[in-house]
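Moderator note: this is an archived Q&A kept for reference. The question asked for a predicted structure of one protein chain; the sequence and the answer are reproduced below.
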Amino acid sequence: MLAAHQAQATAETLYELLRNFVIALYGKQANPVLGDFGMPVPKANGPKTVAQKATSAAKAKATRQMRNTMGSVQKKKVKGTVEVPNPELPGSAPTTGAAEAGRGAAEVAPR
């Protein structure tokens, strides 16, 4: 049983490699050759319908909102400060005065 299973896996791999080779060798004219081997012809990508385009645009917009991605123009509009954490090390005395006045917030410079 194990030998038959391995033989089928090898045959499937060989079939896939042969199909890919024929497509790579003949390019757009590979369909009749694939038919000669009894292999299915690759499905042609047709034009999208208006409904498919609308669905695709809605999904893309939702993904950009969810991941908070922005284009280069939108990134330029973002300005503000970034809080830099100041962890206190155990055993060290807290610092005060002028040295601490410069810490805490760093200005974000636009690019």
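Archived answer notes: Helices lie at 2-26, 30-37, 50-67, 72-77, 98-101.
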